[in-house]
Design goal:
Elements: E1 10-13, H1 19-36, E2 39-43, E3 65-67, H2 75-78, H3 80-90, E4 99-101, E5 118-121, H4 134-142, H5 149-160, E6 165-169, H6 177-183, H7 188-202, E7 207-211, E8 228-231, H8 239-246, E9 251-253, H9 258-266, E10 274-278, E11 297-300
Parallel strand pairs: 1-2, 1-5, 2-3, 4-5, 6-7, 6-9, 7-8, 9-10, 10-11
Helix pairs in contact: 1-9, 8-9
Length: 302
């Protein structure tokens, strides 16, 4: 495995978190690398320190060269608030040579004008970072590497349902106190409102619930004549398969999760409603103005 040192023909990204977070970082790096006509490399060193997260950019036909080591935190990584303050004083973006650390959660137009070689560090959670790479990125993400039998079987089964409404319920690690305080848990109020809204748009279709914790005893999805199917991916399945299955939905109700964000984005097409929670985060400290696509419908979570 080659070292993650910048070179004249490289954009380096440093993915962290689960697949959803990794895809945002990858997409931003892909757009920048394509605009310069250079190689994209992904430094996977963060995952060597983790036991609950795995490198996922090899689960689809990405063009990133996987590299390891050589990454060091930029000034923005270590002192983000200090960098933002310094930016205001000098009236422009300050960055260390050869590195770019994300200082804010919302879209930063400076990324498109970066020179290479450069190492990107951050989450880059906005569709605006990769608008020119939509077709290429969709083709790559749809090309699942070594799909499981479960994925192939469920793809056929869901197709046999005809049109259906996808719902993502994210709990799992969101139940942990620190994560719960930041993201918040979506409850019956949000999902019921979103389901009522989407059924006014597309009618009462079969429902497919994607969840790591179905939670259906507390959540009355099966009221009335609704046909409900619950998909809980087996251990052998990688998250990219769930994203691709979500994309086949006629309409999508997302969780406040980057995984369902990508399922919604991957299946984007005219006349396909996407409903998402407002606010996305329970904390007010994150400005997510550029996270959601303008045509998506936000629904109050309380």
């Amino acid at each position: 495995m080659t070292p993650a040192t910048p070179s004249v023909n490289r954009v380096i990204i440093r993915p962290v978190g689960g697949l959803g977070n990794q895809l945002f970082t990858y997409a931003a790096g892909l757009e920048l690398a394509r605009s310069h006509g250079v190689e994209l490399a992904a430094d996977d060193s963060w995952f060597s320190t983790q036991d609950k997260r795995a490198y996922e950019l090899d689960s689809f036909q990405s063009c990133a060269v996987r590299v390891q080591g050589g990454w060091k935190p930029s000034l923005q990584d270590r002192f983000p608030s200090g960098v933002r303050y310094l930016d205001k004083i000098v009236g422009r973006r300050v960055q260390s040579k050869g590195t770019f650390g994300e200082a804010n959660f919302f879209f930063d137009e400076a990324v498109a004008n970066l020179d290479v070689p450069v190492s990107l560090s951050g989450y880059f959670q906005s569709h605006k970072y990769f608008q020119n790479s939509y077709p290429v990125l969709r083709e790559q993400v749809r090309s699942v590497v070594e799909p499981t039998e479960w994925f192939m079987r469920e793809s056929v089964r869901l197709q046999s349902l005809g049109d259906w409404i996808g719902i993502h319920i994210r709990r799992g690690d969101y139940l942990e106190p620190d994560i719960r305080d930041f993201h918040g848990l979506l409850g019956e109020t949000y999902y019921s409102r979103a389901l009522d809204c989407v059924e006014r748009l597309v009618g009462q279709l079969p429902i497919v619930v994607f969840s790591d914790d179905p939670w259906l005893e507390e959540f009355p999805l099966q009221v009335g004549r609704r046909e409900v199917h619950v998909l809980n991916a087996p251990h052998a399945s990688r998250p990219i398969e769930t994203v691709n299955l979500m994309a086949h939905s006629r309409a999508m109700i997302t969780a406040n999760s980057s995984l369902s964000w990508w399922g919604a984005w991957l299946g984007e097409r005219p006349g396909r409603p996407v409903l998402c929670p407002r606010p996305w985060f329970s904390t007010r400290q994150v400005d997510y103005r550029d996270l959601l696509l303008p045509q998506w419908i936000s629904i109050g979570r309380d």
